[in-house]
């Protein structure tokens, strides 16, 4: 029995419908939803972009994109043909009148309407305005916007204002695709669906928490964007902060959009300013299998960080005194995104001769190998007497669910279906994004004012020495990247 939750018939317009994100993620994702039966018959997807092309050409472009970026499902050519038949294309001029009348003719007013702004933020205002002047959007329409949502507090505020001039907050879906990842939602299920963890989830029992998002890819190919952003703006301000919020927030009274987002906002507001010696910025040097950051970014004098490690504090009753160590970087030793909760050491051991330090460690793996494990201490089996060993209680989802499990939707497909369903829980609210920039701005301004030079790390390593030293000083260690 399929557990796919049906959605209503929709018209989804993708501005930037020929772009990278549309071809790599949005459309291959929609194809998977189509195949799983979640896209109702009669729903339409309308690609809109600058290039002149007809619908037939667009359909073949998307069929090729699915073949290139999709998984095994791309071999199902029958479904793929049926899917692309639901696509239309309009050549549109965001800053002029070209294409709008045609678009107005395609978008129906009696189905769910969603407009995905997969374009540069400088066009948001033009698109929002024209959707209204051409009477395409209405009070129920939804708009979806991508990161980067501004590059600081001021630009984020300006974007929020631009959108608010045309749409109500309840119509705006700001994507942070990390919130669409299966494990991220599972984090909430584990915290608030079990008796076991929540009583221990505080400074009495938790020693510290680590959040790592390590990537092996470099910035080659997107240096133009990345070199102006760096890891702080590209990853910390959004993805890592969202993870931090979910792990640290108070229990919302119910799993509803504003309930969850109110609690996340409180975490951001309780974040303390981070002292410069608690931040390590890094930039990768050439390694055995690739060029340096500066070559990748095509900027020989760049001081942009491709790595960041920081020690954060949340000033509230639950977390006072518990460090949250965040780290993210490109071209690191392994691709690994993981949240790890280190519980405190036992205060006393009753077992003679047991000198090892036993602690429970809960690790939540976002990717690869999604799942969780909890390190627990048991007696070493066998005749050796009362010897203790630490073993993982492994909850790898793929193993736990077995081969018959329903296909797990990827982040984008899940989030797009949430837009159609009108569920904003996994989207960032305007005040949340502003608060996040409000916390990162002074840190970025600080290192810009100091002309901070990032530390070097070899591509394929675990990051700069200083990042290791930062934890070492606290008597702790980063979780090994494997
Ligand atoms: C994007 C960043 O938001 O997230 C990229 O701009 C990064 O730099 C990517 O590579 C990581 O996403 P994922 O889902 O591959 O972990």
TrEMBL record:
EC number: 1.1.1.49
Stretches assigned to the Glucose-6-phosphate dehydrogenase NAD-binding domain: 13-186
Keywords tagged on the record: Carbohydrate metabolism, Glucose metabolism, NADP, Oxidoreductase
Pfam family, one: G6PD_N
Amino-acid positions noted as binding NADP(+) in the UniProt annotation, renumbered to this chain: 16-23, 50, 147
HAMAP family associated with the record: G6PD
Name by which UniProt lists this protein: Glucose-6-phosphate 1-dehydrogenase
Lineage, opening ranks: Bacteria, Pseudomonadati, Pseudomonadota, Alphaproteobacteria, Rhodobacterales
Gene coding for it: zwf
């Amino acid at each position: 029995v399929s557990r796919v939750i049906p959605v209503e018939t929709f018209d989804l317009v993708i501005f930037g419908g020929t772009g990278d994100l549309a071809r790599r993620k949005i459309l291959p994702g929609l194809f998977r939803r189509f195949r799983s039966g979640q896209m109702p018959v009669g729903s339409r997807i309308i690609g809109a972009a600058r290039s002149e092309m007809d619908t037939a050409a667009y359909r073949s472009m998307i069929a090729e994109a699915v073949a290139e970026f999709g998984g095994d499902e791309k071999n199902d050519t029958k479904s793929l043909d049926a899917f692309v038949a639901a696509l239309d294309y309009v050549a549109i001029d965001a800053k002029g009148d070209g294409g709008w009348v045609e678009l107005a003719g395609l978008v129906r007013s009696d189905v769910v309407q969603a407009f995905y702004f997969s374009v540069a933020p400088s066009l948001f205002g033009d698109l929002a305005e024209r959707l209204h002047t051409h009477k395409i959007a209405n009070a129920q329409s939804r708009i979806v916007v991508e990161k980067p949502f501004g590059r600081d507090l001021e630009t984020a505020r300006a974007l929020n204002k631009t959108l608010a001039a045309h749409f109500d907050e309840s119509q705006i879906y700001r994507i942070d695709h990390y919130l669409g990842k299966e494990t991220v939602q599972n984090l909430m299920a584990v915290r608030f669906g079990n008796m076991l963890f929540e009583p221990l989830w505080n400074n009495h029992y938790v020693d510290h928490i680590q959040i790592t998002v390590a990537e092996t890819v470099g910035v080659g190919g997107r240096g133009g964007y990345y070199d102006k952003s760096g890891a702080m703006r590209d990853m910390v301000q959004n993805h890592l902060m969202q993870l931090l919020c979910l792990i640290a927030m108070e229990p919302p009274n119910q799993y509803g959009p504003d309930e969850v987002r109110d609690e996340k906002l409180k975490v951001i507001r309780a974040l303390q300013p981070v002292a410069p010696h608690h931040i390590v910025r890094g930039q990768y040097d050439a390694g055995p299998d690739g060029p340096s950051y500066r070559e990748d970014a095509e900027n020989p004098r760049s001081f942009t960080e491709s790595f960041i490690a920081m020690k954060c504090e949340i000033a509230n009753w639950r977390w006072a005194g518990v460090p949250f160590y965040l780290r993210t970087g490109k071209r690191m030793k392994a691709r690994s995104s993981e949240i790890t909760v280190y519980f405190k050491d036992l205060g006393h051991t009753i077992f003679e001769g047991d000198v090892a330090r036993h602690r429970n460690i809960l690790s939540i793996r976002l990717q690869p190998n999604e799942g969780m494990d909890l390190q627990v201490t048991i007696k070493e089996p066998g005749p050796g007497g009362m010897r203790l060993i630490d073993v993982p209680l492994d909850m790898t989802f793929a193993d736990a669910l077995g081969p018959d499990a329903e296909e797990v939707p990827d982040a984008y497909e899940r989030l797009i279906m949430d837009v159609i369903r009108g569920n904003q829980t996994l989207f960032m609210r305007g005040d949340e994004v502003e608060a996040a920039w409000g916390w990162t701005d002074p840190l970025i301004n600080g290192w810009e004012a100091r002309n901070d030079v990032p530390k070097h790390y070899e591509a394929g390593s675990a990051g700069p020495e200083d990042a290791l030293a930062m934890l070492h000083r606290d008597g702790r260690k980063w979780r090994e990247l494997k």
